[in-house]
Design goal:
single chain; about 450 residues; alpha/beta; 8-stranded mixed β-sheet; 15 helices; SAM-dependent_MTases_sf; EC 2.1.1.320; NDUFAF7; transferase; methyltransferase
Length: about 450
């Protein structure tokens, strides 16, 4: 499920916002919006779109979360059931696939936290949505260079739904742990991972929460109303339409729905928004993050990092689709494009309340990596490269990770630590304000 969040406006018929033409890694952002011609050509049959239209015809408009579940997880036509969608040949590429430095520095942070709590002798590593297994492989390769923690790692727990990706992960990670007394297990959900009283847990979720199903709501004079997916009445009539080729569109529920009465009340921040505001809320994200807090907050405790694009606030217009590294209309080709939305890190923090853990940050990916030693590690890799071409590739890949106008600024890193944090934990440190008083 290596799921990886800019939202496009869901108003009217066009769910795409114009955005800067910069490639930020897993998602590519384009300046263009889907073109709207006076006549839409006859659409190519999309079996999943037909299933969704038939469902709406039978039951009425569906929540956006259900549409995302159809598109990403349908057992036959779902996006993540169709093989390897990562890398330059797929629809997106992630930070671990760009440079080994990313996973190495995540591992270094894990190492510092493990040492800070007196180096527990039993350690397990948990990852949500491991993709090709590249991040876990880099983390393990780095940690195995330190004998103390290398001998303490007892098990690896991967949450992955795709059987294809499980096999890809198994092939890569099994080589790394060959000859070591380390168990490797897969789960379909975070709730399947058992709590442990005698094990320190290291946790990572990289571009996972951005692919969690969301629900969108609009605040009206009559209260919150849900933005839903509906059939386009113009579809199939041979008439002009500005909606997608799939015959689906967005609509606003005329009356409250069960979700619109519950989810907008799940954070006190939402009540302060003005009329006309929209919010994207993922109830699965809240539940999963809370479970993570419970796993890290019990027994020997633990620590973790969540890396995703988004920010420390709510979003209302970030829902978008990616295909072949380009942004496309979310209704253009259901099941054949990745769907994503920005991550509300404040919501992640709120979900940890009462779990015995503390949230750290978030800070930008660039700050996280630079603080943990990206530059000296980069110099060492460049010095070891055997050709000028290879040196330049290494340099460009590292720069891509920390580019403040790209991945370095748009991806955020949130840390999690068991217990109540009374002092700031590096590198999640609040910048000190410079004194305006001139020193003699």
């Amino acid at each position: 499920m290596s799921q990886a969040a800019f939202r496009s406006p869901l108003r009217a018929a066009n769910p795409i916002l114009p955005r800067p033409a910069i490639y930020i890694g897993r998602r590519h952002q384009s300046t263009s919006t889907p073109s709207s011609s006076s006549a839409v050509p006859a659409p190519q049959q999309n079996e999943l779109a037909k299933i969704i239209r038939d469902t709406i015809r039978a039951t009425g408009p569906i929540p956006l979360s259900r549409y995302m579940q159809f598109c990403l997880s349908h057992p036959t036509h779902g996006y993540y059931q169709k093989g390897d969608v990562f890398g330059e040949k797929g629809d997106f590429i992630t930070s671990p696939e760009i440079s080994q430095i990313f996973g190495e520095l995540v591992a270094i942070w894990f190492l510092t936290r493990w040492m800070e709590v007196d180096s527990p002798t039993r350690v397990r590593i948990v990852e949500l949505g491991p993709g090709r297994g590249t991040l876990m492989d880099d983390v393990l390769r780095t940690l195995f260079n330190f004998p103390g923690i290398a001998q303490s790692i007892r098990s690896i727990h991967l949450v992955e739904n795709s059987e294809y990706l499980r096999q890809v992960q198994k092939k890569k990670i099994s080589k790394r742990i060959e000859g070591k007394d380390v168990d490797l297990s897969w789960y379909t959900g975070i709730n399947e991972i058992p709590e442990s009283d005698d094990t320190f847990t290291l946790f990572v979720a990289h571009e996972f929460f951005d692919a969690m199903p969301i629900n969108t709501f609009e605040k009206t004079d009559m209260g919150w109303r849900e933005v839903q997916v509906d059939n386009d009445p113009m579809h199939g009539n041979g008439l002009s339409t500005q909606t997608s080729k799939s015959g689906l569109r967005l609509s606003i529920s005329p009356s409250p729905t069960p979700l619109s009465t519950v989810l907008p009340a799940s954070s006190p921040r939402f009540a302060k928004l003005s009329t006309g505001s929209r919010i994207e809320v993922s109830q699965d994200t809240f539940k999963i993050m809370r479970r993570i807090g419970e796993l890290l907050g019990t027994g020997k405790g633990g620590c973790g990092v969540v890396v995703d694009y988004g920010g420390d606030r709510s979003y209302g217009q970030s829902f978008r689709a990616f295909k072949n590294h380009k942004i496309v209309d979310v209704f253009d080709d259901p099941g054949n494009a990745d769907l994503t939305a920005n991550v509300d890190f404040a919501y992640l923090r709120e979900s940890l309340a009462g779990t015995g853990t503390s949230a750290l940050g978030p800070i930008s990916q660039g700050s996280f990596l630079l603080s943990l030693g990206l530059q000296p590690r980069l110099r060492k890799l460049i010095d070891a490269a055997t050709s000028e071409e290879r040196k330049e590739d290494i340099r460009k890949s590292a720069q891509r990770l920390i580019d403040p106008l790209g991945m370095g600024g748009q991806y955020q890193v949130m840390g999690i630590s068991s217990g109540e944090v009374t002092e700031e934990i590096y590198p999640f440190i609040t910048p000190k304000k410079e004194s305006k008083v001139l020193k003699p």
